[in-house]
Amino acid sequence: MEFRNLGFQNSCPRWEDISQMHKADVTIIGAGVVGLAIAAHLASPGKAVYILEKNERFGQETSSRHSGIIHSGIYYPQGSLKARLCIEGNRLLYELCQRQGIGCSRLGKLIVASNEEEIKQLQELQEMGKRNGAEGLRMLSRSEMKNLEPNVEGVAALLSPSTGIIDANALMGYFAARAKEGGAEIAYRKKVVGIEKVADGYQVTVEEGDIERFSFTTNILINCAGLQSDKMAELAGIDIVKAGYKLHYCKGEYFSVGGGKNKLVKRLIYPMPEPKVTGLGVHITLDLDGRMRLGPSAEYVDSIDYTVDSGHKEAFYNSAKKMLPFIEYDDLEPEMAGIRPKLQGPEDDVRDFVIRDESDKGLPGLINLLGIESPGLTSTPAIGRYVAGLVKGIL
Ligand SMILES: Cc1cc2nc3c(=O)[nH]c(=O)nc-3n(C[C@H](O)[C@H](O)[C@H](O)COP(=O)(O)OP(=O)(O)OC[C@H]3O[C@@H](n4cnc5c(N)ncnc54)[C@H](O)[C@@H]3O)c2cc1C
């Protein structure tokens, strides 16, 4: 994909030329959508900004294993980073997509109550969303809901008109191009294996393949390592259990819905969220090509394994059929899975994103981003701005 006004002009030394004599201004660990968004904000001529990524390409982990939804900011506690950055990110993403021709669609979403008891919860969600600043939320009676979505079953619904979908890969391509245009360099197949605080910043040790190791220093180090971000914080000397930084993996599986059923709804259709918002409930998502999926589920796991258990098909079918009676068992096929990097363990209350400079832990210039689960994709332009603000405060 081509983006406007992007002519490459590397202003920092090529990664291959960097030596211990050279000091990076800013080093970002991880070229997922978050690391790329931050790089796009920070890159500027004359500033040496590097993004280190262990994989061959950007966005190969959580950033390509999600629902691709631009959330409206309903579910998160008032004043939390999740609420603030999601609301700001929603607005910025639509503007960005329009300006840069990145694919997106403001489809809108319905959260459906399946019984009278859930109507009260829907009203609470509406109030929460309004307090956060989510746009245009409106309660719908059953007949109003049926007018919009005749094939959906329920007793009432909450309409969120500012929810939409985005081509996340194109968004990452845009952030990467912006970062490179500003002079930043993305170095692939570079796994960070050591972080040491030194007098004037951090010594970072990087492994290429299994053997070659290389160290350099950086003034500011930004940890956007997604599922490994707690390990990076630990490498820097933080006691992650004491700091509340230990991540819990929570797997979300998706089943595709075939049989031409994608023509039967126009919006994203959600049930009530799971307790403590572990997940948003197995819902219908549509992508920009009109493909329909059910998911994601929410199951805490011990390791990273993206296989979808076809034995879960029955549970998906049963949870969807009440709200979406047109779905038949044979329409469902296992599709893909993603893993949420959660700070919140199975028994814990909702946790916010951690995005902070660690000066108070004796580590000034180390900026940690942990627990960047949903609405992380939606929040990216706002996270980029927020972290740029933290960096400005340090430099
Ligand atoms: C099932 C699911 C559904 C979701 N749906 C939505 C949604 O609809 N809308 C929404 O807003 N958000 C959604 N999210 C959240 C969103 O996907 C994430 O917040 C976002 O992708 C996180 O991006 P990231 O860059 O932090 O992490 P990642 O994409 O995981 O990137 C981290 C990068 O760091 C690299 N890395 C790790 N360790 C090292 C190392 N030692 N050295 C070098 N590189 C390293 C990794 O290789 C990786 O590329 C969903 C998440 C999941 C799991």
Structure description:
The protein has 395 residues and is of the alpha+beta class. It is built from 9 helices and 20 strands. Strands 1, 2, 9, 10, 11, 12, 19 and 20 form an 8-stranded mixed sheet that branches. Strands 13, 15, 16, 17 and 18 form a 5-stranded antiparallel sheet that branches. Strand 19 and strand 20 form a beta hairpin. Helix 1 packs parallel to helix 9 and helix 2 packs across helix 9. The radius of gyration is 22 Å and the shape is elongated. The two termini are 34 Å apart. The N terminus is likely disordered. The protein binds flavin-adenine dinucleotide. The site of flavin-adenine dinucleotide has 40 residues, from helix 1, strand 10, strand 18 and helix 9.
* Residue runs with pLDDT of under 50 for 5 or more positions: 1-10
H-E string: EHEEHEEHEHEEHEEEEHHEEEEEHEEEH
Instruction: Please give the largest β-sheet.
Output: 8 strands, mixed
Q: Given the helix and strand composition, which structural class is it?
A: alpha+beta
Strand content: 25-35%
Helix content: 25-40%
| Terminus-to-terminus distance | 34 Å
Mean pLDDT: 92
Secondary structure tally, helices: 9
Basic shape: elongated
Radius of gyration: 22 Å
How many β strands by DSSP?
20
Oligomer: single chain
What compounds sit in this structure?
Answer: flavin-adenine dinucleotide
